[in-house]
Amino acid sequence: MSEIKLETGKKEAPSQKSYFQKWAGQMKCSVEAPKAGFILVSFIGGFLGILAVAYICIQAQLFAFFAPLGASAVLVYGAPAAPFSQPRNLIAGHVLSAFVGVIVYNILGFNYFSVALAVGLAIVVMLGTRTVHPPAGATALIGVVSSNGNFLWPIVPVAAGALIILVVALIVNNFDNNRSYPVYWY
């Protein structure tokens, strides 16, 4: 099958790149720098969302759960239109991955194999349910490392933390007239 080259407008046969040639990428980054207002709203969202989560996690001594929610904050407040940032992905990605981590821990315990298996299975589950949220891979990992196999862990702190991030996103991301959150719910 031939493809049309953007530079010339002519049809050309697809080139066969070697394995290492693919590492070079296909194009230069074309992402524009965001405007100051967008950056300010992203900062406010990230600050308030993590402030609320941090307060609750510190009070409940759930220190390990900061990392995935910090990464979620970057997506939800910094790239609110991205598919990975939508409520379905944020909530379901974290909760499903948390259950994967707890289940793997209950079957295999805590070891290097169970940690890797939990992350791999979380990717499979998120892809299969169309709920990919990259920070949730860390949630599966923490499910093995810190949940102690407790089946309530995916609800508190995981779902609760993700819901806090979501509520702040709904409020803050819609302050700016140039952005609207969410793009879709499900």
Give the beta-strand count.
Answer: 2
Structural domain count: 1
Tally of separate helices: 6
Strand content of the residues, in percent? Answer: under 5%
Order of helices and strands: EEHHHHHH
Overall pLDDT: 91
Strand order, main sheet: write it out: 1-2
If you had to describe this structure to a student in words, what would you say it looks like?
58% of the residues lie in helices and 2% in strands. The mean pLDDT is 91. The longest helix has 24 residues, at 36-59. It has one domain (36-172). Helix 1 runs antiparallel to helix 6, helix 3 (87-108) packs parallel to helix 5 (136-146) and helix 4 packs antiparallel against helix 5. It has 6 helices and 2 strands, in the order E-E-H-H-H-H-H-H. A two-stranded antiparallel sheet has the order 1-2. The two termini are 35 Å apart. Strand 1 and strand 2 (11-12) form a beta hairpin. It is mainly α.
Short description:
The protein has 186 residues and is mainly α. It has helices spanning 36-59, 66-78, 87-108, 112-129, 136-146, 154-172, and strands at 3-4, 11-12. A two-stranded antiparallel ribbon has the order 1-2.
Secondary-structure blueprint:
Blueprint: E1 3-4, E2 11-12, H1 36-59, H2 66-78, H3 87-108, H4 112-129, H5 136-146, H6 154-172
Antiparallel strand pairs: 1-2
Helix pairs in contact: 1-2, 1-6, 2-6, 3-4, 3-5, 3-6, 4-5
Task: Give structural attributes.
single chain, 186 residues, mainly alpha, two-stranded antiparallel ribbon, 2 strands
